[in-house]
Amino acid sequence: MKLTWRLAAVVIVTLFAALVVGAQALAPSAITGDEFLINVTSGTSPLPSSGYSIFLPANSGNAIQLISIYNGLGDAGTYTYTQKNSTNGQLAVSDSVNGLQATVNLSFTAQNQGAYSLASTFPSGYSQAGIFTSAMGTAPVSLAGKVIQGGTTDGMAPYVTSTAFNLIFAQTGNTYVLNSIDLPGRGMGIQSSGTYSNALLNRSTMAVYLNDSLSGTNVMYISFATAISGQFAIAQSTSSGGFEIGSFTASDNTPPRVVITSPTAGQRWSNVVFTVTGKAGDDVGVAAVYCRVGAQDWTLATSANGGTNWTCNVNLSPGTNIVQAYAVDTSANASAVTNQSVYYVVLAPVTFLTNGSGTLSPNYIGASLELGRNYSVTAAAGAGFRFANWTGSIATNAATLNFTMASNLTFTANFADATPPRLNFSNLVAGQRWSNAVFTVKGGATDNVAVASVQYQLNGGDWTNATGTKSWSAVLALVPGTNSFAAYAVDAAGNVSVTNAVNFQYVVTNQLLIRKTGLGSVSPDDNNAWLEIGRNYSITSAPAAGFVFTNWVISTNWVGNFTKGKTNLVFLMQSNLTLQANFIDVTPPLLTFTQPVAGAHVLKALVSLKGTATDNWQVSNVWYQLNGTAWNSATTTNGWTNWGTTLQLVAGTNKVNAYAVDIGGNSSLTNSLSFYSSNTFLLKMNFATASPLLSNGLNFNLLVSTGLAGHIEYSTNLLNWSTLTNFTGSNGVIKFRDAAATNFYQRFYRAAIP
């Protein structure tokens, strides 16, 4: 029995779902959440014949439950559904308790009714047919305030067959009243009451558990095909076999709910058009929301989600506007009218200006304000400024301006500069000394706004505009001695800085000349420096090593002599002053012989005498003496660092004395050198033959000692001599020829050694 009822319910659900597809497709694409009331018309298995059951697919997934109403049992299982074409569908059903499996072919005659045929696949051999009706709407959550008007089509209890009834649920609480209507010729009416509870079984179906004063406990399954109609089935639990099947309409006595979310209470608005927004709700459905302002016509609001959120545009009037709204549900119940106020403000531009540095609070510059409304604005001066006054549409000296907004208002807050400028000198300080008749003083001036001018005065004269402002300068023609200079700055507001004043000196200078005799230094070395006439100066002398300071010579252009012997000289500067510091050399030079060495034995009659001389300053000469003869000056090529001469010796011992003299007149010690000479000096000229003059020139011989070097000279007058050739002695005969001798009537020759 249980298996038979379950399969019949599945078939009915499938057929109904197929009908829901639409006007062109009766077979649905899915049956989740729907309700099916099935009735077996033929076949004894697997469902019992002449029985009613409710088939309820879950809202999601593939679970089902089968509820027995009459001559059947409840059960549960799973299913799959396939839409075959526009009027046919197919179910595969599996019983989770008994394991029965069946295939159900569905034929839809309408979207909410049809017929089915069933054949079992396990166990095999069962077949059955029947009809079904279905509901595919959405059941409400609550029945409070609703009236279910039912009409019975089958069954005898708890109500009389074919009897109409009204089931009236209270607005609050869980009570109800049942009125069974006595239709003529159809039976006797019944009135009862009781309490109830309800629960949703799936999307379309609600179970109402009635505890009735007459019939006891019953379960009424209400399935909604639309928001206000559907089919019901009653199973009487306290009366054996009692049931009723029928259809119903639900009258809704509960008004919808509506609120205005915008505007908010007391909101101010500056546009003529305002979009009113709100929310509406109902336990069945909201049909419409209407809104208006004041006594204007009601306007239908717009909503994209059945009134849950709605909007409505209204036109405002200046001042306070009362916005109203109400909702109507699908049962024509109207909500109470809700009200909200909004203030439409008319704005106009106002002009605020500032003159000088300052701020306005609040800052309405560039703003539009509400006409007729009172406002106040406070002016605050910026750093270095003070508030002066308000001018324009209202004149006042108070910092806070109070006004009532009207068209074409203009206000100016005036701030006056209260900070004086500041001035400084950049190249002049008190007591400064200057040596030119013209001085360009420079400085800077600053202000919190702008410096307009800089005024200066020299030595109490007229005040004069300087050149520039931020960086300024003035060319001054000075007087000798003390000069007084003063200056001040003026800004654009007429504020005057502190007057800065300094005294400085114009000093007349002259060039000082300093020279030195001897070696030494002076400090400071102000030679060629320009010093201030009439000012005392000090200078100190310091001799170099080997020198001593003797005195200072003070003169004018090196003329006149006034001497002072102290190394430190204090003098008064005057025109053309000249100073001379005298240092004398007190250190004698040093002399040495380098050639020949003492005791040497030479074979020549001539010898080169060489030596060195040094001095702390400078050697001026080297003097030598040979064998007690006269003193002679030696020769040098490098300032006497190396000196030398050629000596003509005598046979035997020769003695040479020598000393050096420096430019300071100091003489070195006289050094002596003795050595021995063989005096083998030979220097002799003769003609080579008795007739030496030939066509190719004059031929002659020279006999000269070995090592002697010199040159042959010629002359035509014994006054002017020229070199013919050079020679070096080899203790033999050297032959010469003067090819030019044939060109002269006379020619003189001589041999010369250094």
Which structural class is indicated by helix and strand composition?
Answer: mainly beta
Given the structure, what is the number of helices?
Answer: 1
Count of distinct strands: 66
Write out the strand line-up for the largest beta sheet, numbering strands in chain order. 1-2-3-4-5-6-7-8
Q: What is the percentage of strand-forming residues?
A: over 45%
Mean pLDDT, to the nearest integer, reads 88
| Major beta sheet summary | 8 strands, antiparallel, barrel
Shape: elongated
- How much is the radius of gyration in Å? 72 Å
Termini separation: 168 Å
How much helix is in the residues?
Answer: under 10%
Extract low-pLDDT stretches: 1-23, 183-187
Describe the structure.
The protein is an all-beta fold and 754 residues long. It has 1 helix and 66 strands. The chain has an 8-stranded antiparallel beta barrel. Strands 9-10-11-12-13-14-15-16 form an 8-stranded antiparallel β-barrel. The radius of gyration is 72 Å and the shape is elongated. Mean pLDDT is 88; it is low at 1-23 and 183-187.
In short:
The protein is mostly beta strands and about 750 residues long. About 0% of the residues lie in helices and about 60% in strands. It has an 8-stranded antiparallel β-barrel with strand order 1-2-3-4-5-6-7-8.
